[in-house]
Design a protein that fits this description.
The protein is mainly alpha-helical. It has helices at about 15-35, 40-45, 50-55, 60-65, 75-95, 95-115, 130-140, 165-170; strands spanning about 1-5, 145-150, 155-160. About 60% of the residues lie in helices and about 10% in strands. Strands 1-2-3 form a three-stranded antiparallel beta sheet. A hairpin with a 4-residue loop joins strand 2 (about 145-150) and strand 3.
C-alpha cells in the first residue's frame, strides 16, 4: 500500500483554515455516526445521496450532506489524509473563499456523476472522495513538478516521487 504523507510544495504564510475546517467537520460527523451506534444506518439513509431519490426529484440536499459522511474509520482516515496533504496548497494558491466553493462544487459534481451512472440505485453514497479527487486534480494542474512524500507499507520507508506520477497512479486505479 502507498500513502501520501507530505509534499515538497510549500505555500508559506497561509493558514489553510478552510481545509482544517473540512477535516474537523468530517471527523465530528463521523464521531456522531459512531455515537449513534445501530441508528447510524438510518442517519446515512437520511443524509447519504441515494441516486433513485435524486432522479425522483427528492432530497437534493443530500448531494452536499453526503460529502461529510463516511462508511468507516479507514474510509474517513484515508480521505482526511489525502485532504491534509493536498488541500492546503490549493487553498493557499486560490484563496480560502474560492477553495471553499471549489471543494463543495467538486463534491457536488462527483455526487451528480454518481447519480448519473447509477440512477436506479437505492444504496446511499457517502464520502468526501469526489471533492478530494477534485483537489488532487487541481494539485496536479497547479503543482505538476512538486514531489509527494509517500509511505510504502511493503518497504516500511518513505520516498519522494513526482506529483504527476503519484496522482496519475491514484487516478488510474
Amino acid at each position: 500500500m502507498i500513502f501520501p504523507i507530505g509534499d515538497t510544495q510549500v505555500q508559506g504564510g497561509h493558514k489553510p483554515y478552510v481545509s482544517y475546517t473540512f477535516i474537523a467537520i468530517n471527523v465530528c460527523v463521523f464521531l456522531y455516526e459512531f455515537y449513534l451506534g445501530p441508528k447510524a444506518n438510518e442517519f446515512i439513509m437520511t443524509y447519504g445521496t441515494i441516486p433513485n431519490e435524486i432522479t425522483a426529484g427528492q432530497d437534493y440536499f443530500t448531494l452536499f450532506t453526503s460529502i461529510f459522511l463516511h462508511g468507516g474509520w479507514m474510509h474517513l482516515m484515508g480521505n482526511m489524509l489525502f485532504l491534509w496533504v493536498f488541500a492546503d496548497n490549493i487553498e493557499a494558491k486560490i484563496g480560502s473563499s474560492r477553495f471553499l466553493m471549489f471543494y463543495l462544487i467538486g463534491g457536488l459534481v462527483a455526487s451528480l456523476a454518481h447519480v448519473g451512472f447509477n440512477m436506479d440505485s437505492t444504496i446511499p453514497t457517502v464520502g468526501a472522495s469526489g471533492a478530494i479527487a477534485a483537489v488532487m486534480g487541481a494539485y496536479l494542474v497547479m503543482f505538476p513538478k512538486s514531489k509527494i512524500k509517500i509511505l510504502v507499507i511493503v518497504f516500511f520507508r518513505s520516498f519522494h516521487i513526482p506529483a504527476f506520477l503519484f496522482l496519475g497512479l491514484w487516478f488510474g486505479q
